[in-house]
Amino acid sequence: xxxxxxxxxxxxxxxxxxxxxxxxxxxxxxxxxxxxxxxxxxxxxxxxxxxxxxxxxxxxxxxxxxxxxxxxxxxxxxxxxxxxxxxxxxxxxxxxxxxxxxxxxxxxxxxxxxxxxxxxxxxxxxxxxxxxxxxxxxxxxxxxxxxxxxxxxxxxxxxxxxxxxxxxxxxxxxxxxxxxxxxxxxxxxxxxxxxxxxxxxxxxxxxxxxxxxxxxxxxxxxxxxxxxxxxxxxxxxxxxxxxxxxxxxxxxxxxxxxxxxxxxxxxxxxxxxxxxxxxxxxxxxxxxxxxxxxxxxxxxxxxxxxxxxxxxxxxxxxxxxxxxxxxxxxxxxxxxxxxxxxxxxxxxxxxxxxxxxxxxxxxxxxxxxxxxxxxxxxxxxxxxxxxxxxxxxxxxxxxxxxxxxxxxxxxxxxxxxxxxxxxxxxxxxxxxxxxxxxxxxxxxxxxxxxxxxxxxxxxxxxxxxxxxxxxxxxxxxxxxxxxxxxxxxxxxxxxxxxxxxxxxxxxxxxxxxxxxxxxxxxxxxxxxxxxx
Length: 532
Prior knowledge:
By secondary structure, the protein is an alpha/beta fold. Helices cover about 30% and strands about 15% of the residues.
């Protein structure tokens, strides 16, 4: 049956500028571009131009010289690899301007998805985070600034502290007398230091390439922050960076063993993910090569299926048992984190997790990215990180247990302004995943699940992964972290604060613009124009 699904994008090639070098044809992993030998087209009209033209056409056919580069528009995903690497800048890609009859209820993307499912009978898959035009609360919050009576601070001339620690804090400190003065009597829980309040969230080996993981690990060590292995275990090439890595324990238990747990700086239990709350994970067998097989401890070519629930966790008590089992396995030397998706009752869930013994809670909002998820889940399940974070911080404070856990906010953080606002809402640190991938070259084409990533990030194909230089990518990531850190210092200075700890949970420094009373109440902030 003929495929009537229209292409999403149209590839335009300036044939006058194109030098026919073939770079775009050779490097497109989706097979969009090809050489087209167009001499036969000229032969159809050659008699209108004379014998000289006829001889030229025959010469082209004999020498097999390509007439032009042509595109199969249906295969284009707008990853821009060809655009970025064309030496003549001859390629451009535009959305398909094909017109549909106006209908505010049945929009073009609804029609396209129905046509696709009518042909395939399967779920519509996608990658990356929720891209629907939902209300952005970050964009409707503004930060305070100092003026006359409370002077601002110049971060270029005065010390500014971005360092923070992730881990559980005691209710109080007790001291006892010692021969050289007071000695701390209270036993402190293990914690991990961040030189700036940013981390790279979970992105597993298999979902992304080893080169991408190496880049994240190197940048984490360079910047004094953390990166997360995701649920795919830790490749041996990453062992030198393990002291700056979070090792994840997911429902599939891929790559989990005592050595893996002891190597990392933090152990994280993955319960949920913002891009797909309530469902499990699936790494297709096509992405399970020898390296992924050894790291995940599964056969080559086999699908890696993570069940939706942990089959040993059906209550907070079960979760507590796993938390303390992991603490026992690491001899109580590592903080244990629990990652959850932002859902409607997230505050009650976080309260239970804190009481279950976790040291860190990562909350992943519905803008959070992923390598693969059903479109229906990504776009319609979960809540924004802003609302979830504010609700959790408020509940833990009201219950008097906020000090027991550190909160990490994740899901759609785009710039340092979002970071500052998240911290003011109650986060101890902020995870940046999609932003990190963009810094490495990602164009958000949302085709991660195909394994054909032209930029060498979300693929395991050797010819594609070789395109990503881990050292260059690590440099880009480190530059991004340093740039955001410098901007965060400027924001703190404008607020008259000299440490990021002073901003944490300080919602009085936030004001809402264009928010409803209900929104302001959940966020715990006041409307713009209202004084202190």
